[in-house]
Design goal:
hpI Integrase, Chain A, 2 domains, three-stranded antiparallel beta sheet, two-stranded antiparallel sheet, 13 helices, 54% helix
């Protein structure tokens, strides 16, 4: 939201001004309408345009709460609509064969990164958690007997996620190796995944979200596929929809709206064709 508001401010002729200094309360509906038109001209998707409009609405709601604008001005700002329409979903559905190839690529890496990256990918794909949730995980949040993980999700919500046996096997292999590298008598790190510097030096620092992006990109390159971290979540949800149903997928993804879960369905055209072919008269 900070990035979006800064970009919106720049487009509203408040360039080089920190968003905290922008006089948001002086905006009129015409400003937002012009912003929407500019975003559309630049080829922004309707969902992205909606994000910009909602960000400004949030600021104006706060301006009204602080008494900086009238209720009439707030209502007029709310009348501005974002661009209408939808776009086909982005990203890819990672098949099980591709996940196995990624695991093999990690296993062939003799460095500590091989074990760590395998564990990271296993949790992302095996639980459908977001990359931000994975980097913030602590050991105390893991129940190894129940194969469950307590994460702090979007909206500051505590969530319970479950992982398959093979994913916990990858996680245990990494944790056991990490402990073996600690000097005798030193306590294990409280978090799951460490930064690893050149020379295979395991630091006592938590991994970052950018590192998750780098892991997905690097391991994807090894198997000849461009992978983004969120593709693991998309693939998890798609697989649950395929093998169970949309309702179960919604619960495991922790979506409040089932339509959000449906938007993650990445089954390809062949699957849709087969569904139609099976529709006999």
């Amino acid at each position: 939201m900070k990035y979006i508001l800064q970009d919106a401010a720049d487009r509203l002729d408040f360039e080089d001004i920190d968003i905290k200094e922008v006089p948001w309360h002086l905006l009129e509906p015409g400003h937002v309408t012009a912003l929407v038109a500019a975003l559309r001209a630049d080829g922004y998707a309707p969902n992205t345009t909606s994000l910009y409009v909602n960000a400004i609405r949030g600021v104006m709601n706060e301006a009204w709460r602080l008494g900086l604008i009238s209720q009439d001005q707030l209502l007029r700002m709310r009348t501005v609509k974002a661009a209408q329409g939808t776009r086909l979903p982005v990203g890819r559905n990672l098949k099980r064969t591709l996940i196995r190839e990624l695991m093999e690529a990690c296993a062939a890496d003799p460095r500590p990164q091989g074990l760590r990256d395998a564990a990271v990918i296993a949790l992302l794909y095996g639980t459908g958690m977001r990359k931000s949730e994975s980097v913030n995980l602590d050991l105390r949040q893991i129940d190894f007997a129940e194969r469950s993980l307590q994460v702090l999700g979007k909206g500051n919500k505590q969530l319970i996620k479950y992982a398959p046996v093979w994913a916990f096997d990858k996680l245990n292999a990494w944790l056991e190796f990490r402990r073996s590298q600690l000097p005798e008598g030193q306590a294990d790190d409280t978090f799951l995944f460490n930064r690893i510097r050149r020379g295979s030096h395991i630091t006592r620092e938590r991994i970052t979200k950018h590192a998750i992006y780098y892991i997905a990109r690097q391991r994807g390159t090894q198997v000849g596929v461009k992978i983004m971290p969120h593709d693991f979540r998309r693939s998890f949800i798609t697989r649950v929809i395929e093998e169970h149903d949309l309702s179960i997928a919604q619960k495991l993804a922790h979506h409040s709206n089932i339509q959000t879960t449906a938007n993650y369905d990445m089954r390809d055209d062949n699957e849709r064709r087969r569904a139609v072919d099976r529709f006999d008269c």
